[in-house]
Design a protein that fits this description.
Number of helices: 0
Number of domains: 1
Helix content: under 10%
Number of strands: 3
Mean pLDDT: 83
Structural class: mainly beta
Largest sheet: 3 strands, antiparallel
Length: 58
């Protein structure tokens, strides 16, 4: 797997999932974005593992 996508993290990602947010500088509303997370960051509130996918994700 690749590196963790959380800002400043250099750990190897162990899980794929989603976080709620928007791209900086865009006028878009918050939406779910695919991220790779390490063991530490997959525990953060607001991270959803692929198997816990919220219903409104395509």
């Amino acid at each position: 797997m690749s590196q963790c996508d959380y800002k400043g993290c250099t750990s190897e990602a162990t899980t794929k999932g989603y976080v709620l947010g928007h791209k900086r500088g865009s006028g878009d509303k918050d939406n779910f974005h695919h991220v790779n997370a390490c063991d530490k960051h997959k525990q953060k509130e607001g991270f959803f593992e692929d198997r816990e996918r919220p219903a409104n994700i395509n």
